[in-house]
Amino acid sequence: MTDDEDFRIETRAIHAGQEPDPETGALMTPVYANSTYAQDGPGTHRGYEYSRTGNPTRTDLEANLASLEGGEYGRCFSSGMGAINTVLNLLESGDHVVAGDDVYGGTHRIFTQVYEKYDVAFDFVDTTDHDAVREAVRDETALVWVETPTNPLMNVNDIGALAEIAHDGGAICAVDNTFATPYLQRPLDFGADVVCHSLTKYLGGHSDVIGGALITNDPHLDERFGFYQNSVGATPGPFDCFLVLRGTKTLPVRMDRHCENARELARWLDEHPAVDGVYYPGLASHPQHDLAAEQMDDFGGMLSFELDGSLEQASEVVSTTEVFTLAESLGGVESLIEQPAAMTHAAIPREERLAAGLTDGLIRVSVGVEHVDDQTADLARAFDEVLG
């Protein structure tokens, strides 16, 4: 597909980076299950030599994802954490990173338990407070890491403002766009240098694949990502790439339903007497609702809420639902429910979690594409059983 910029994202999701197979006419990108490729002479190959370095199925996926994000370059990895690790490979001993104080637990873990021992320093601040971010940036700052919306408190960060702060301090700005997806938000358009995705989530969309990606417009950054991709070897297999390509084709229609259901469920929760608070950017009461409306094309399929009850009651609720499956991860067609303090964010010390507002009783929901009436009835039944 040529001239991608002439087509809307719904069309590019299906066609970008992919052409029918020239020999067979096969419409779908084949699964090139090869580890190595024949060469015409020593060191002379036809574009591929070894599948860790490059694979045709992966090439199509990388081009597809770059197009969706409005980027020039894409690189895929065997997991979202593999992608995050590759960004961190850019750092050197003595460098400093500024990140949000409510980032995903796995991100916090790799920052503090892996890279701190290499003399990389991290400050976790409220990234909705731009003065706090400016104060945290120092001469050694090489990276400002942004999630928006954040996981799990659903804070919305001003990408343009944070990218400007990073650049003023001589740092790059990387944005984890997993929750929003490129269908709802494109950080490169606002000045971010790198976009990170867990392909496991909405882009795959069916809870059957693990993957990660980095997209950028900077050829120098892409060259370095490619070097680490090949050198470290955290690359996805061709079947994983095929599954994500299958997922991106339906991303727009799935996200429309995720957003529609989440908006209605958030309103229902917000009015329920047992619920103490709802975190969803689509609610007018959300502190960054106006920013979300400006920066995003819709408000997403993720929300969190607090019960007017104890830790134990929250644990019982997430263990009682039926339509909502108690499980980690998110972004599949099925609805998932979890308790971050005991699951996805358990790696963060409790005092740090509480200071960031991530309480023990917080419940996070990935709103699937089932009928919303069944979703609300399921939560209502769980509330009644546990809370009376």
Q: Give the proportion of residues in helices.
A: 25-40%
Report the oligomer.
Answer: single chain
What is the average per-residue confidence, as pLDDT, rounded to a whole number?
Answer: 94
The gross shape turns out to be globular
**Helical element count?**
14
The rounded distance between the terminal residues' Cα atoms is: 57 Å
Question: For this structure, what is the CATH class of the largest domain?
Answer: Alpha Beta
Main β-sheet, in a few words?
Answer: 7 strands, mixed
Count of discrete structural domains: 2
CATH topology of the largest domain: Aspartate Aminotransferase, domain 2
Major beta sheet, strand line-up: 1-7-6-5-4-2-3
Uncertain runs: none
> Would you report the number of β strands?
12
Elements, N to C (H/E): HHEHEHEHEHEHEEHHHEHEHEEHEH
Report the structural category. Answer: alpha/beta
CATH architecture classification name of the largest domain: 3-Layer(aba) Sandwich
Q: Can you say what the CATH homologous superfamily of the largest domain is?
A: Type I PLP-dependent aspartate aminotransferase-like (Major domain)
- Rg over CA atoms, rounded to whole Å, is 21 Å
Percentage of residues in DSSP E strands? 5-15%
